[in-house]
């Protein structure tokens, strides 16, 4: 029996303002090219795993925790577009780094770490569809996402200065796998 490994996928839609970032950690129907495999995520793939404790990390680094569902600093939901998130950034070095990079539009996007339960995928040749996943973490990524259609934004009190700083990061067409 082969060992089950944690998989990671990334997305590139992020909105930022204030000390909160929000957007989509995964989107349904978006295509990722993972080596020779083409992968998509089916609607409902996250539904059964949202009740668990999921952490938010910086670049999949367990030493850079940004929040978690158990404490209420990370909120996750699944809607018709994908896996939506809202994350209150901590006043830590990692949190301040994410805030600064989000304000400058320098973040690459979002990613998620998961395992596929038995029956959670469907294959058609080299095409894989994720039907269900066991979500372990979402990550703010500094570089390139595997999926092109995610989002992240910074949210907070809207002031004239904050409104001028607010930017949407939408990296359409970026299609690189995290290695």
Automatic annotation (TrEMBL):
Q: Please state every residue range assigned to the domain named Prohead serine protease.
A: 18-154
Question: What's in the keyword line of the UniProt record?
Answer: Hydrolase, Protease, Viral release from host cell
**Top-rank lineage group of the source organism:** Bacteria
Indicate yes or no for the key word Transmembrane helix.
no
- The keyword Protease is annotated on this UniProt entry: yes
Question: Coiled-coil annotation: which residues?
Answer: none
Question: Any idea which GO molecular function terms this record carries?
Answer: peptidase activity
- What does the record list as GO biological process? proteolysis
The protein's name is HK97 family phage prohead protease
Tell me the organism.
Novosphingobium humi
């Amino acid at each position: 029996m082969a060992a089950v490994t944690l998989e990671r996928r990334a997305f590139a839609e992020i909105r930022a303002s204030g000390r909160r970032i929000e957007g989509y950690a995964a989107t349904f129907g978006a295509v990722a090219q993972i080596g020779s495999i083409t992968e998509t995520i089916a609607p409902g793939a996250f539904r059964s795993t949202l009740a668990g404790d999921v952490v938010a990390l910086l670049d999949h680094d367990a030493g850079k925790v940004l929040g978690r569902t158990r404490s209420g600093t990370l909120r996750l939901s699944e809607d018709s577009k994908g896996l939506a998130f809202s994350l209150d950034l901590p006043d830590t070095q990692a949190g301040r780094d994410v805030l600064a990079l989000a304000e400058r539009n320098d973040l690459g996007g979002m990613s998620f770490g998961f395992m596929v339960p038995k029956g959670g995928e469907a294959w058609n040749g080299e095409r894989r569809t994720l039907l269900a996943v066991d979500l372990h973490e979402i990550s703010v990524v500094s570089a390139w996402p595997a999926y092109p259609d995610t989002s992240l934004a910074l949210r907070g009190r809207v002031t004239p200065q904050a409104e001028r700083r607010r930017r949407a990061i939408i990296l359409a067409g970026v299609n690189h796998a995290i290695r």
